[in-house]
Amino acid sequence: MEHDAPRQNLAISAYHALKHDIIRGRYAPEEKLLMSRLKEYYGVSTGPLREALSQLVADRLVVAISQRGYRVAAMSLAELNDIYDARAQLEGLILRLAIERGDDDWEASVLATAHRLAKVTEVSSPDELLDGWDLRHKAFHTAIASGCNSPHLLQMRDTLFDQVERYRHLWLQETVMSPQALETKRQEHAALVDVILARNAEQAANLMRDHLMTPVPIITRVLQARGIH
């Protein structure tokens, strides 16, 4: 199949598959990524796989340990706190700008994505619930951020989001999207929408920062239980 597709498409496909598996914990922090196993598992040759790994190095999910070797990036409490704080600070700034600059179409997109997120419980399995909720949750927050009308700020936001995902997934797994967790998040999102539509920038930014920081204590406990400090 490989010879039928352009090399770039293979590299992109391998990148997304490997990134997904690192975020979901298929590979442990600091685990060595053996090219022979990766080539077999993902069905790609050395060239596209190296391109994918190089991009993951840029994403700070993988570390190059020599000219030919790669490891999954380490995880730490210091990085957890720094990434989450940076993301919460940036999201607060972006939200202030969105409230200042967002138009009626922006408000409509925030309402629509919030509505879809609130109805995500109608699925058949825990994995479907987690994946479905996560996709709609990302769409909701992306809709809010889009109102800032700054491509550069949104690019910075995407970079921080990617770096936080591996930590954030530990929180998602720990809560297993329980009815209680879903209801708590639904209430937080509803409160966010209310202050956003009221164009209360100060209160909205504070709520957003608090909302984004809630997983940190849970992730901290998970990491400590795994011997990560």
Automatic annotation (TrEMBL):
InterPro entries: GntR_C, TF_FadR/GntR_C, Tscrpt_reg_HTH_GntR, WH-like_DNA-bd_sf, WH_DNA-bd_sf. It holds the Pfam family FCD. One of its GO terms (molecular function) is DNA binding. It comes from the Bacteria. Residues 8-75 form the HTH gntR-type domain. Keywords: DNA-binding, Transcription, Transcription regulation. The keyword Transcription regulation applies. PANTHER family: HTH-TYPE TRANSCRIPTIONAL REPRESSOR GLAR (PTHR43537:SF20), TRANSCRIPTIONAL REGULATOR, GNTR FAMILY (PTHR43537). This is DNA-binding transcriptional regulator CsiR. The gene is csiR.
